[in-house]
Design goal:
two-stranded parallel ribbon; about 280 residues; 13 helices; binds fe (ii) ion; 6 strands; alpha/beta; Phenylalanine Hydroxylase; 4-stranded mixed beta sheet; about 55% helix; single chain
């Protein structure tokens, strides 16, 4: 899943798509270690540009647990890491591994991987003409965003529980409820709610954390609501805009308790009863 940023008008040249197809064709899938990609200097520069843009923003707007995880994972700042190296660095921290996929995978496959403690990541890099924007998940969103977050035990457990819940639930509307709660937590979650007030909420969602523009925007502009599973599962969202509504927990432990607890208990019956409540 990817973050939301303002779209760009300029389209990448055909040479970019050709390069991307070449990288996608080397994706080893969920059941084998990722293949080594020979990144170009330009691709390394895009990684370095996004990293140097995001680092000061993370220091201001990221949740403390995420910063601790980031520092423990210690990803390179100047070059695109190989997924095998991300896998080797992350699994001792929270048991999560990284596998390479060619592009967006069906939700069932993505969440199936999460249930097994595996994150499905693309290996291609966004176009160098718009380094701070990606219309869909690239290796920068998947690694700089999700891997740094998955280095925090609570966030790793939240991903695992979400994956297991999707594996248990069959109903389409019931699954959509789970996907949406995942969106408003693992992708766009914030913490820092104190006594119903949100003086300075901090981000823990990978979609928010991998989007420089939205990181600077959400604090003053988004409506921050307390965790509300029924609202998170039903209000819906537009992936192409900055998220106008976010849901804040008091801490990551509180998020894991409420949202993780919800995922752990989720079944077709429990979700059907939530969905039957008129709104
Ligand atoms: Fe994502």
């Amino acid at each position: 899943m990817s973050g939301s940023t303002a779209a760009t008008a300029i389209e990448p040249p055909e040479s970019y798509w050709e390069r991307r197809r070449h990288i996608a064709a080397q994706a080893a899938g969920l059941d084998r270690p990722a293949t080594e990609i020979e990144y170009t200097d330009t691709e390394h520069e895009v990684w370095a540009t996004v990293c140097s843009t995001l680092t000061p923003l993370w220091d201001r707007y990221a949740a403390t647990d995420v910063l601790v995880g980031r520092d423990r994972l210690d990803l390179p700042k100047d070059r695109v890491p190989q997924l095998r190296d991300v896998d080797a660095a992350l699994s001792p921290l929270t048991g999560f591994g990284y596998r390479a996929v060619a592009g967006l995978v069906p939700s069932e496959e993505f969440f199936g991987g999460l249930a097994r403690g595996l994150f499905s990541s693309t290996q291609y890099v966004r176009w160098e003409g718009a380094p701070l924007y990606t219309p869909e998940p690239d290796v920068i969103h998947e690694v700089m965003g999700h891997a740094n977050c998955l280095a925090s035990p609570e966030i790793a457990e939240l991903h695992r529980l979400a994956g297991e819940a999707i594996g248990r639930v069959q109903g389409e509307a019931e699954r959509q409820f789970l996907y949406d709660v995942f969106w408003f937590s693992a992708e766009f979650g914030v913490v820092g709610l104190a006594n119903g007030h949100a003086p300075a909420v901090k981000a823990y969602g990978a979609g928010l954390l991998s989007s420089p523009g939205e990181l600077e925007w959400f604090g003053d502009n988004a409506e921050i609501r307390p965790l509300d599973l029924d609202a998170m599962g039903t209000i819906g969202y537009d992936i192409d805009v900055y998220q106008p509504t976010l849901f804040a927990g008091e801490s990551l432990a509180h998020v894991l308790d409420v949202v993780g607890g919800f995922f752990a208990e989720a079944s077709d019956a429990s979700l059907a009863s939530r969905l039957s409540v008129p709104r």
